[in-house]
Amino acid sequence: MSHPLRQLVPAIVLASFSALAVAVQPLNPSQLLERMAAAMSQMSYQGTFVYMRGDSVETMRITHVVDENGIRERIYSIDGPQREIIRDKYGLRGLMADGKTVMEDALVAGSIYPDIPLTGSDTGEHLYRFTTGRKARMAGHEARRVNIIPADRFRYGYEVWLEESSGLLLKWVLLDNARRPLAKLMFTEMRLGADIREGELQSSTSPEAFRRLEARMPSGASVYSGPRWQAMALPPGFKLTLHNRANDSSGGLYEHLVYSDGLASVSVYIEEPLEESTAAHGLSRLGTANAYSRHVASKHVTVIGEVPSETVRFIGEAISPPQPDG
After folding, report:
1. What residues of the chain score a pLDDT lower than 70?
2. Which H or E element spans position 280?
C-alpha cells in the first residue's frame, strides 16, 4: 500500500464512524414532539386506555381512523356509566348516561391528548424546559419519555411517553409544582395502521341518544366580536387565544375568554349572577382543575383551568369590566 493510501484509510474509517454516529443520534425533545404531532394527525390507531384522576379510574376504548373520508373517531367507556364520543365530518356528538363525566373536559376539548407545543425549548419566553428520559415498554411497544418541566409556579408539567417507531402518545402524566401526579392516562393495548378494526367506529347506541357537543352559549344569543371584559395583567406567557361575547334574549351579558401559554389554558366566564351564587367567592377545586370566582360590577366572574390555584386567582383578580366608553 502506498504512503498516501495508508494515510487515507484511517480518514475513511473515521469518517464512516462519524457518519454512523450521526445516523443513530437520538432525536431531541422538540423533534420527538414534532413526530408525535404528525403521528396523531396522520395515523390510524386503536387501543384501550386507563384514565386516572384523584380517586376516579375509568377504562376507555378509542378508534381513530384517518383516510380519504377524513378523521373519524369513537371513544367509549368499558366500565362504569355509559359514556361515548363520536367525531366525524358531521361534528362532535356525545352520550353521557350519568349526565357528567370526569373525561368530559378532555373529550370535548378535541382530544384525549394534551395540546403539547412544538416549539419546545426554542420558545423565546422559556415557559417550559423539555428533556428526554428513559425508555420503557408500554402496551406492547417501546416508548421514549419526554419531560415537560414548567419554569415557574403558574403552570403544571407533564411526562409524555411516545411510541418509538411512530411517535404516538402511549402515556401522559400531569404533574403539580412539586412533581406529584395529578392525573394519568395510559394505554394498556394499542394497534397501529392496518391492524385496527374499523368496525368499532360504529356505535350500538341509537343516534337519537347522542347530543351535539358545543361551547356553552345562552339560548337565542347574539354574538359580538371583540372582548369587553379583559385581564389587566396576566402570568408570564399567557395570551388571549379565544373569545365569545353575547347578549341573551333577556338582555343579560355573557362573555367567555380563553388565555393560554401554548400548553396550559384558562377559561374566564362573565355571566349574570344566579340567585344561589350571589355569595360565591374564592377558590375551589374540580378534579385536577382549579377555579376562582368573584363578583365584579354586578357580574359573576369564574376562572377555571388545569393550572395551579395561584394562576386562576391571578387572572381572576385581574379581570376588569369594560370602560365607560368601551
Report:
1. 1-26, 97-125, 213-226, 247-253, 274-280, 324-326
2. none
Residue 8 C-alpha cell reads as 487515507
Written out in words, the top-level CATH class of the domain with range 222-320 is: alpha beta
Instruction: List where CATH 2.50.20.10 sits in the chain.
Output: 29-212
Cα–Cα distance, 162 to 175 (Å, whole number) = 17
Give the containing element (helix H, strand E) for 8. Answer: helix 3-23
Residues of the chain with CATH 3.30.200.100: 222-320
Question: How crowded is the C-beta side of 214, counted as CA atoms within 13 Å?
Answer: 8
Predicted local distance difference test score (pLDDT) of residue 285: 84
Question: Is domain 29-212 in CATH 2.50.20.10, yes or no?
Answer: yes
The predicted-structure confidence for 137-179, as pLDDT tens digits, reads as follows 999 999 999 999 999 999 999 999 999 989 999 999 999 989 9
pLDDT of residue 222: 45
- The count of other CB atoms within 10 Å of the CB of residue 47 is 21
Containing 108, the helix (H) or strand (E) segment is helix 104-108
Q: How far apart are CA 89 and CA 80, in angstroms?
A: 29
pTM over 0.85: no
Q: Which amino acid is at 240?
A: L
Q: What pLDDT does 253 receive?
A: 61
CA distance 7 to 267: 67
Res 161: pLDDT: 95
Q: How far is CA 164 from the centre of its chain?
A: 21
Residues 6+ apart with CB under 8 A from 135: 142, 143, 144, 145, 164
A 10 A CB-CB count for 318 gives: 15
Q: Distance between alpha carbon 85 and the CA centroid of its chain, in Å?
A: 16
- Name every residue whose Cβ is closer than 8 Å to that of residue 174 and which is 6 or more positions away in sequence: 114, 156, 157, 158, 181, 182, 183, 184, 288, 306
64 three-class SS: strand
Q: Please report which residue ranges of 109-159 form alpha helices under DSSP H.
A: none
Beta bridge partners of 283: 292
